[in-house]
Amino acid sequence: MTKLELSKTGFQINNVNIEFPIDISVLKQALGESRHIKKKYNHVYTWDELGILAFSKEGDKIESLGLELELREYDFCAKNIFNGEFIFEGQELFQYYENNKNQLVKLFKGDRSGAFILNGVSVWFDKENGKITGISISPYEKEEKEKKVSAPVDAEFASFKPLWQEWISEINKIVSTNNDYYNLTDGISLEDIQQHSALEDDITIPPALVNFYKVQNVDYDAVTSTFQILINNWPYELIPFEDIAEEWNSIQDLQFDEDDLPEQEIDFEKINTSNYANPKWIPFATGRNGDYLVYDTDPASKGKFGQIIELQNESWSRDIVAESLEELIQNEINNLKTGKTEHFSFIIEKEN
């Protein structure tokens, strides 16, 4: 039976010492002869009986290994799944996985499964629909990222700090910080503000929203995200600060010519718009269906600067859902405290 062992002292396959990049002759010494396919951009060596693949750009040095746990139909795939033994840090790998999920490292943005890192080697789990279908083994070099310093919050908006802390605290009671969709990040930097605040010559993201994001920001996720706000039984996900301009532009693309403008049922005493949307409405949360929560910087005579409007795409309704950003987030916190958490059902179901 094939045996892989990765420890603090080294990596071995069938008692043969392995170091990346692996000379193909060394790998054949450990595993025997293989089937070889030259693809357009790399070479693939396949051990059909063992369920093991090896990948090389030039053909002589192996940059990564793959253990197949599910049969696939590509020409380079093994004809059997891996049924050998993988000892990681003195334990069977999958037992270690069950007991140490909090040590998984995300290798790239949007990584759903993560990897264990040991002795300069990463062991990454390929998951589909929550099931591990393969394992990738490759060298690991930690990418040194420049530490971003969050911009200081202006004194006028100091209340955003405890507000965020309370919101995070309530969400953490529901969703694990290790969840794939837990997307909280550090607050925005001065550089972020300089790069992303201007939407048009005379339209910028207002100070309240800027300071809100100075406390915390979120990462984009293609599926869903934990930091969301339930309005009228629909979840609105917080937009990453750097993506607000793009979402604002998407709204402007829907503005109508005056002759084609549908009739609108809007409280025009409080809401100021003569089109699909007022360009001075700043989106900060998305329903992913064309609907947004927007921060109103241009209210009508009886409206309030900073009121939050739910901008619905299909129905064309424009309703004030909170008089301020603070009120909106506090309402969401209150909902969570009273058990209104159904908008997290999908996220919780996808817990590792």
Compact description:
With 352 residues, this protein is of the alpha+beta class.
Describe this structure in words.
This protein has 352 residues and is α+β, with helices and mostly antiparallel strands. It contains eight helices and 24 strands. It has helices at 24-31, 93-99, 160-172, 190-196, 207-215, 244-252, 325-337, 345-349; strands at residues 3-7, 10-13, 16-18, 22-23, 35-38, 43-47, 52-56, 61-62, 64-68, 85-88, 91-92, 115-118, 121-128, 131-139, 184-186, 198-200, 203-204, 216-218, 228-231, 234-238, 281-286, 292-296, 308-311, 318-322. The strands form six sheets. It has a seven-stranded antiparallel β-sheet with strand order 5-6-7-9-14-13-12, with no helix packed on it. A six-stranded antiparallel β-sheet has the order 19-20-21-22-23-24. It has a five-stranded mixed β-sheet with strand order 3-2-1-10-11.
